[in-house]
Amino acid sequence: MKDFLEQYKNKSIVIDVSESFEEMDASLFQKLYEKYANIKIILDFNNKEHLLRAKTYNIPYFFSNPVTTIDQLYGFLKHNPTDMYICEELGFSLDKISNILHNHNIKIRVFPNICQSSFSETPSMKTFFIRPEDISIYKTFVDVFELIADEERQQILFKIYKQEKWFGKIKEIIPTFKEDLDSKYLLNTFGMIRSKCGKRCLYKPQSCNICDRFSDFADTLKENKIVIHKIKKKN
Predict the structure, then answer these.
(1) Which of 14, 16, 59, 131 has its CA 20 to 30 A from that of 223?
(2) Around Cβ 216, how many Cβ atoms within 10 Å?
């Protein structure tokens, strides 16, 4: 392990100990952390014994459990984690969530290539996900984007998201997306609006129908074979 830590000493290293974290492990991580300050561990919030151990040995940690409600966010906040996984409905209020967490020096992590909702029958367009084209918008709020896939597919997705471009159907890169929607026909304001809409459609259905409008307009553009490109600003 020391060779690995030395090789990546300039990178953030996260080690998942959510299933096993004994006293001997904590002592070892404490010694390693004294030399390699870039180490963090992942804990299961429900295992209070592991949590207490990490606190006792002053090892930086965050939880594997995704944060899906504001109550849960403030509950986790009391334990001073280094990062939080923001998922589901909270992904539509990242402007507010980032203000809260970044003011506490907590990094925001998201899973961009998974449709997230607390209800299994939520239409894909109204779940939380992030297209490659919208990464630059979400970088304002998000610190770490984690791709969920097997190793081979993960490498492909990494390249796509790094390029911030995708010209095919959304479901081809986000398997849990069930609608037959071509990403290149969505307007480039899609991500900007959804990142801070607060998912108003849940509370005031008549005041916001933006996701359906984006989808309908994308279908119209596709029928007429029109692609609207984002204009890059000149330096």
Answers:
(1) 131
(2) 11
Beta bridge partners of 145: 110
Cβ burial, residue 229 (10 Å; 0-12/13-18/19+): exposed
What's the pTM value of the predicted model, to 2 decimals?
0.90
Q: Dump pLDDT digits (tens) for 187-199.
A: 788 889 999 988 8
Q: How far apart are CA 195 and CA 133, in angstroms?
A: 13
Paired with 169 in beta bridges are 182
Is residue 100 within 8 Å of residue 84, measured between CB atoms?
Answer: no
| C-beta separation of 125 from 181 below 8 A | yes
Residue 161 token pair:
């998201």
Whether residue 227 has pLDDT greater than 70? yes
**C-alpha angle 215/217/219, rounded to 5°?**
70
pLDDT in tens, 79-120: 999 999 999 999 999 999 999 999 999 999 999 999 999 999
45 and 96 together in one domain = no
Tell me, yes or no, whether 85 and 162 share the same domain. Answer: yes
Of 46, 63, 80, which closes a domain? 63
